[in-house]
Design a protein that fits this description.
Number of helices: 7
Strand content: 5-15%
Largest sheet: 6 strands, mixed
Oligomer: single chain
Distance between the termini: 38 Å
Length: 223
């Protein structure tokens, strides 16, 4: 399956390889499904069915003005799972991809989810006195226009040399013609704003109130 159509008529690109227990990989803001190729190789070799989703306005999917909010991205993931007929999946999200998964669980529950892996994404982006684990430099005072021009630099994370090493590995695996830099899409700026104002901590807990405390302690220890 190369694509799925959402309930509002948007075509999403989806790769589907391997067989066995299903793993769905959801990339972050401006990242395409191709960025998962090395992980997909390892997972399919280990006996998993691996699906990589391009969210709307990402990668090869349609780029509409509509639906630029996390709730719609959660619904898009639901539509993709419906289209593929998956009933028991492990969902893996990187950055905003993780928030897409939490949006899905918030809207539709975790009945067919056997696990969630969040990579490099805090459940709450805005920092305050009681929550210092948000996005670097983001607080209520500046949240209105913090992402008005895209994602600002933080001075954190991989340096250019290490980031380029990862890119070179993708080029070696896919060929230079199949790897392109992320495209700036102005229509997604409202999505960034919406993303910044979400709080998924209660979704992490689901029906176990004490689970969120364990999850947050683990998250804080990893910082």
């Amino acid at each position: 399956m190369a694509s799925v159509t959402t309930s509002d008529g948007i075509t999403l690109h989806l790769t589907d390889e391997g067989s066995g227990p299903a793993v769905v990989l959801v990339a972050g803001y401006r990242a395409g499904a191709e960025t998962w190729v090395l992980q997909a190789d390892a997972l399919t070799a280990a006996g998993y069915r691996v699906l990589c989703l391009d969210r709307r306005s990402q990668g090869r999917s349609d780029a509409p003005m509509s639906g630029q909010r996390m709730a719609r991205h959660g619904k898009d993931l639901h539509d993709a799972l419906d289209a593929t007929g998956l009933t028991e999946v492990l969902l893996v999200g990187s950055s905003m991809g993780a928030s897409t998964i939490w949006s899905y669980v918030d809207l539709f529950g975790g009945e067919r989810v056997r696990g969630v892996v969040s990579i490099d994404q805090t459940p709450r982006m805005i920092n305050d006195a009681g929550w210092p684990y948000g996005f670097y430099g983001l607080d209520r005072a500046n949240s209105g226009d913090f992402f008005a021009d895209g994602v600002p630099g933080t001075g954190k994370g991989l340096d250019a040399e290490r980031a380029n090493q990862g890119l070179l590995r993708l080029v070696a695996r896919l060929g230079p013609e199949n790897v392109s830099p992320p495209v700036a899409r102005p229509e997604t700026l409202p999505l960034l704003h919406d993303h910044a104002h979400q709080d998924w901590r209660d979704v992490l807990a689901l029906d176990r109130p004490d689970a969120v405390n364990d999850a947050l302690r683990t998250f804080a220890a990893a910082l």
